[in-house]
Each structure stands twice: as C-alpha cells, then as structure tokens.
Amino acid sequence: MGYYFNNIQGKKGSQFSSQLRGVNLEKVLIVAIDAAKYFQKALICNYFGDVLEKPFFFGLDQLGIDLICSKIERSQKEIEAERIFVGIEATGHYYEDIVRELGKRGYKVTIINAATTYEERSSALNWSKTDDLDLYAIAHALIQNKGMENKLPEGHYRKLMTLTRARRSEVRKRALLRVHIRTLMDHIWRDFQGYIEVENNKPKKKLIFSDFWGQSSLFFLEFYPHPSDVLELGIEKLTSIIKEKKLRIRTSTIQTLYQVAQTSIVKEKEEVSVELLLLSMAIQDLKRLSENIKTLEKEIETALLQTDGRLLLTVPGIGVITAAEFYSELGDISNYENAGQLIKKAGTNPIIIQSGGTSGFYGKISKQGNKNLRFIVYTVGKCLAQHNKDLRPYYLKLKERGKHARKAYIALGNKFIRIAFSMLTHKKPFDSKQNGYSIFEEIKKKLNFTKINTYLNIALAA
C-alpha cells in the first residue's frame, strides 16, 4: 500500500485514487449540482464526460430531492456504476440543505469552491457564465478531484459559525450606519465632529468628545444635535441635565461644546428638519444594532467557553470574538492529519512557481479554500503582529526581508494555524516566553460576560 502515501495530491489524492483503482472508469458516475436560491440544476455524466442526464432543474423540497435521486439511480443502473461522485459548488448557504438531504440518502457530496469552477471555465477559454457551463466546470473539477471537503459544520462548530457570521454582518451594518450619521451631521452641525484652531499659523483639528460614538456624544446626537439646542439650554442647564443623566462629561468639555455652538456656521434648524428626522431614525437604528452585537457577543462567549476553542484565549492578541471565528471556521481538526491541510482549506497556501529546473519562488496565495477562514487567518495575523510579543519578531523578520505587510499578516496567520493545531490537538494552552505572562490574567481581561472562576470551572470539568 505504499502508493497510498505518495499521491501527488497527498492524502486527498490517495483517498480519491483508492476509490478509482481497479474500477472500470466507464462505470464511474459523476453528478454535478449548481445550487441557487430557488431553482437548483444538475447534470449526470460518466468519468469521461459522456452525458447521461442532460442539465435539469429540481426544487429544494422532498419532491426535488426525490427527482435527483431517481435520476442518479436510473443512471447508475444504466451504466452499472460502481462508484458515484457527487459535487456541488459552495454558493452562499444554498448548497447546505442539498448536501444535508443527499447525505441522508447515502450520497457523499464534495463541496467545490466557486473560484475553482471559475478557473475551470477559464482553462476552457470560456469566460461566459451560464448554469450549464457552471455544471460542466463542476463536473470537470470533480473528475480532477478539486473539491474542498465533504462535511458541513455540525454541533458547536455550526453554532459558533452562525453566531460569529451574524455578528460580523451586524458590525458591517453598523459601520455603514455610522458613515451615514457623520454625513447627516456634516449638514446639521459639522463642527460637532471636530473643529479647527489655528496655532502658529498652522491648522489643528480638535475634538469636543474624544469618542464620537461614546455615551456622552450619542446623548447629544440623540437629543440636542443642533447648536441652537445647546445655546437655548445654556451652560448651567446643560450641567444640570448631565448630572441628572449621570454622564461622565468634564466641565471643560461642556464649555467647549457651548463655545463651538456659538461660533459654528450652520443652517437654521428648520432648513435641516429632514436631516434631523433622518438622524433621529439613524440613532435608533444604531442603538438597536449595538444591542444586537452585544447580545451576539454574549452568546459567542458562552458558546466558545463550552469548546476547546477556549484554549485560544491564552494567546496574547487573540480575543473572544477572534478566537470564536477562527475556531469555528477551522472546523473539527480531527478530520485533518496536519496543519498544512488546514492552510490549504483556508486557501492561504502560497503557490510555488518553478520552471526549467530553477529553485522557484512563492507566488500569490491559492485562494482555493474557505474565504471566511481566509479572512480570519489574515485578521489573526494582523492581531498577533500588533499585540503578541512572542510572534511579532516573526512578522518583523518578514518585513525586513521586504514582504508587504498584508503578505506578512497572512504568513503569520499560517504560522498560527500550526500553533493552534498543536494546541487543540494536545489540549494545551499557549506557551508564552514573556516575563510576567499569566494564563489567568490573560484570560481574565478578555472575558466580558463570564467570571474567570466560571471559566476555570468549565476548563477543569473538560
């Protein structure tokens, strides 16, 4: 069985070839599926690409699954198929139900990256995109064993993945909303975001509130967004309201706010009534999104602490959200023999370019894996480069060699995949060499909703 370990595609290739070895390729069935929101399409052919079932639509319900299964069974009988390979392109989340339902019927479905099907179309010198061309590309990728994986995330991996992706979506919405609010304030009271003072003939921007999105600033944005509101109240009334609302605002800040309101050039309140209405609505949306994010973060922290992913909190520079995203997108590491396979799953493995016997060089990353994992690998690398004293020297070494910061972040992220693989495999915390490092203190500062004693109890119970 020596051939099993020497396939040019590694373990993945060995497993694929072992299923084909000794089998008449005329009796190998290929099923390509293109998933969509409403109408799914499939194609059935043999290993050589001879079409047995022309592209056909099927619905994502019991009748639709019955239809595709019946066609697979009919084609299987027609050629007396000994092996069946089913492949589907990872399109949004639409493919998941198909993978799950076909799995219940006994079919192992290979998930194929959308970038792979794009390259298959390009290699055929066809840059058009139609459902049928996608099916041909999926079938060709399946024949060449270019799929990613065969399992959907389950259990706590799926729970954390759903929570972290939902939080990321809410954070993006909030970021766009904040831009919208700043734009509205440009029309209502531009200097509220920052005013200019000239010192030694040089302009210098100064802020009224150090944190524009802090509690104090948001209070004025919600109730007194126009300078006329502030002037009408006066300093004494402002001070009284601030004490009543228990806001932490210095007397100097109140005076600055009042002075800026006096000197600002703005439109009359009636002229910006529409902007004020939109601002009021936007502030309410902002509060709702912030509350949603807080709720999700609490759920994420609770869920993470129930998994081995809590070990990642012992790494300086890796917080709860980053750890949860990384752990869930990484998936069950017991399905992998080494960290290199996880790097390929992320698509952050550099492509080696070699020709004519030269030593070759590393080109761009492959981008042939999970784009969400690829994003978090980059994020992790950036966090570690900035906040982890043990791993920052590796980043600086790459920079000294002329690596662009983004490439260095990816390289550091890949290095951390190897470290995390070892930590999770052996269930060991991060081994920091820094003086004064304490696992207890490192974890304590990262928990926002859970007491450190609760964390330790969970860890000991595991």
Estimate the mean pLDDT confidence: 89
Helical percentage: 40-55%
Structural class: alpha/beta
Q: Note poorly predicted spans.
A: 1-5
Task: Tell me the series of helices and strands, N- to C-terminal.
Answer: HEEEHEHEHHHEEHHHHHHEEHHHHH
Shape descriptor reads elongated
Distance between the termini: 38 Å
DSSP strand (E) fraction? 5-15%
Cα Rg: 29 Å
User: How many strand segments?
Assistant: 9
User: How would a textbook summarize the main sheet?
Assistant: 5 strands, mixed
The largest beta-sheet arranges its strands as 3-2-1-4-5
Helix segment tally: 17
Description:
This protein has 17 helices and 9 strands. Helix content is 55%, strand content 12%. Helix 8 packs antiparallel against helix 9 (251-263), helix 13 crosses helix 15 (405-426) and helix 14 (392-400) runs antiparallel to helix 15. The chain is an alpha/beta fold and 462 residues long. The chain has a 5-stranded mixed beta sheet, with helices on both faces. Strands 6-7 form a two-stranded antiparallel sheet. It has a two-stranded antiparallel sheet with strand order 8-9. Mean pLDDT is 89; it is low at 1-5. The chain has helices at residues 10-20, 62-79, 94-104, 114-123, 131-143, 155-188, 215-223, 227-244, 251-263, 273-304, 320-330, 339-346, 371-387, 392-400, 405-426, 439-444, 452-461; strands at residues 28-34, 39-46, 51-59, 83-89, 109-112, 195-199, 202-206, 350-353, 361-365. The chain starts with 9 loop residues before the first helix and ends with a helix.
